[in-house]
Amino acid sequence: MKELIESLTRKAGDTLMKHFRQDWALLKKRGTAKEVATRYDKEVDRLIVEEIKRHYPHHSLLTEESGFLQDDPDWLWIVDSLDGTGNFADFNPLFSVCIALMHQSELLLGAIYAPAIDEFYFAEKGKGAYLNGVKIQVSDVSDLDLSYILYCEGGDKDRGRTGELLQKVYLRVTDIRKLGSAGLETAWVAAGKGDAYFSTRIEPWDVAPGVLLVQEAGGKVSDFQGKPWQPQTGDLLFSNKKLHEKVLSLLSSR
Ligand code: LIP
Hints:
Layout: H1 2-19, H2 24-28, H3 39-55, E1 59-63, E2 67-69, E3 72-83, H4 85-89, E4 96-103, E5 106-114, E6 119-124, E7 129-131, E8 134-135, E9 148-153, H5 159-170, E10 175-177, H6 182-190, E11 196-200, H7 204-216, E12 220-223, E13 236-239, H8 244-251
Parallel strand pairs: 1-3, 9-10, 9-11
Antiparallel strand pairs: 1-2, 3-4, 4-5, 5-6, 6-7, 7-8, 11-13, 12-13
Helix pairs in contact: 1-3, 6-7
Bound molecules: L-MYO-inositol-1-phosphate.
């Protein structure tokens, strides 16, 4: 399974790279919709689903493009074939392929591949988190004034609410970053390139591998009430642990 998740995430990323910055029709469509899905999301989703089903015909799958393919409840693959589609369509290199595997409701493996910036993230339960084969750790920052916070909202945009949350956080931290790929944002917290990341109403396929990556890199993941991640949780905070309570109290302050 470890070999499959790694080779499949890489194969999916390499397939996306064949089309990256090639399709000028995509670029012309920029700004015409808030949420974009391209034929590449679908093509790569098909490739991933077929390959998983070939190896494990009875495993269940939850993917952004194919929905819930229900089978053996003990095994669940969670897949986003192209996370950051808007960036991909805009010729922006910050996009990724995200695949996670859960066994009996526990995250076992997670992989995130951002092929255009050559970053391959991998985590296995109890065995650490890695970027291009090198072990990674969350940052050491414990002071809000010195922190960089990443964020994004999921598909269901509520800009009023996001604006309020952003204002609370922005006034207290060094700066805020929005990358446009939730998967990469979680991975960057795991690698210490940001100190925390929060999202509202995010979908499970955007963040599932990142949950394991951040935990295995020494960080913490919870909802805005401090409860553990579950696939149906949309409001989430990923942090280096040291900042967790501080950012949570900003997010829940009035
Ligand atoms: C995207 C996220 C992005 C978020 C978008 C969308 P997609 O995923 O990664 O951060 O702001 O709403 O959900 O749709 O490109 O896989």
